[in-house]
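Record type: ASSEMBLY
Status: queued
Input:
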Amino acid sequence: MARIDWNLRSRSRACMKCARPFEEKETVRSGVLAFEAPLVAELFAEKLAEEAAAAAAGQPVKPHPEYVRLDFCEDCWKALAPADWISVWKGPYVPPETAPEDPLRKATPETLLRSLIEGEEPENHIQAIYLLSVMLERKRILVERALKTAPDGTLVHVYEHRRSGDILLVADPRLTDDEIPGVQAEIELLLGLRPSPPSPSAPNLVSLPEDRAKEDPT
Ligand SMILES: [Zn+2]
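Status: finished
Output:
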């Protein structure tokens, strides 16, 4: 399975080329590019130089994501050099919501998906992440922007959150019909829709990757 950067990437509030803040309902051109793309190096030249200086000074530097989401105003988009985009689309700019999330609110498929992706080991929840994404797409909360094949053959769905503009890359685990009920049960358990297994020694509802099995003796 291809290594995927799982973090949700929010829509920027300003054009990444001219830095002008987007106005509400203005058409924004968005796309996903591999981090190695020349355009990324050009746009983030200053930041990358700062990082290189920090690394040279022995400071820890965060690893780069594999993919980046870029947003542009129409004028800058037209002036961009061609790039090897993984996905491009356009849509009206919607300012991010500022209301704080209620921490006591019950988990929903949406909050669960976010917590699995932002959690410690998203690679151990590939099946649940995929199935939740499909559920949210059916509810029209996520929109599929592209379907790509990674070099190792893994299918990768590029989803955008309709309201927030967050981008989400989801590997397709190619679930078989036999596997779906187990993953659904795992999701229901995580959502608190069914009681926890009676003891920690209860069998896993889904088969987990080997490395997880080693770390987790239950
Ligand atoms: Zn611009």
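Annotation: The radius of gyration is 20 Å.
Annotation: The pocket of zinc ion is lined by residues 15, 17-18, 20, 72-73, 75-76 (CB under 6 Å).
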